Amino acid sequence: MTDTILELDGVVKEFAGFRAVGGPQGLSFSLRRGGFLGLIGPNGAGKSTTFNLISGVMPPTAGRVTFDGTDISRLSTAETAALGLGRTFQTPRAFASLSVLDNVMAGLAHPAEGPLAALLGRWKPAEAELTGRAEAALERVGLIARRHDSVANLSGGELRMLEVARQLVRAPRLLLLDEPTAGVDPTLQGKLSEILAGLHAAGTTLVVVEHNLGFLMSLADSVVVLQNGALLAEGAPADIRRDPAVIAAYLGA
Ligand code: ADP
Ligand code: MG
């Protein structure tokens, strides 16, 4: 087991000839196991697309993504999830017709039996245990009182916390969060900060895309700055904050 959990090597993504990720060289960076990486950059820099390439929403046009020694460049989202990768989306996704609790449970299946077990009537013994895990996750994100509500009644910030709960319950080894504080009120942001610090302390590797730099810089132990799909800077939060190229391109004078 090496110290590197995630490696991007010359990754490029083009949409109809437009290079959204990669720049002239292809995008390369690596992430230490247990690290907390902040991924920042102006709108359109390629942050969400980079998450899509890592998690298997779409394959790169060129280059390689390696997760824990396995080339995951061509794997589907289901396959990367099965390997222990989790992510949330910039625009939260939920099953609108399901309750808050059922949304958290939807991603879970009895690990030994798989989803078919439910159809075969062998689901029951596992159900109580899975419900307990889902409720614990909802407790952690502050949504336990809403567990029987329809997700249609959740605010934008609460939907984001629901996405976090859906990942907590799966306990991924590598978790990618795309703008988790957007639309989240200060109280829930505080809770989110505690949750992420707790995951980090427990050894989960994190990559967080954020525009709220105060939030991110207090949590991350390294930062990658993207501009026009290319790596503009990489380093410790304190060094990134005073990097002249980053200030000129992104942080503003
Ligand atoms: P960020 O998350 O940093 O704001 P994105 O990764 O969403 O940036 O987008 C990077 C660039 O790629 C943008 O110019 C965006 O319009 C383009 N882009 C992203 N996804 C697609 C797509 N599916 N089809 C075409 N262009 C896309
Ligand atoms: Mg984005």
UniProtKB/TrEMBL annotation:
| CDD domains, per database record | ABC_Mj1267_LivG_branched
Tell me which residues make up the ABC transporter domain.
6-253
Q: Which SMART domains match?
A: AAA
Coiled-coil-forming residues are: none
List the molecular function annotations (GO) for this entry. ATP binding; ATP hydrolysis activity
Q: Name one GO cellular component term.
A: plasma membrane
Keywords, alphabetical: ATP-binding, Nucleotide-binding, Transport
> Does the record bear Nucleotide-binding in its keywords?
yes
What Pfam family is a match for this entry?
A: ABC_tran
Q: Which domain of life is it from?
A: Bacteria
Record protein name field: ABC transporter ATP-binding protein
Q: What is the lineage of its organism?
A: Bacteria, Pseudomonadati, Pseudomonadota, Alphaproteobacteria, Rhodobacterales
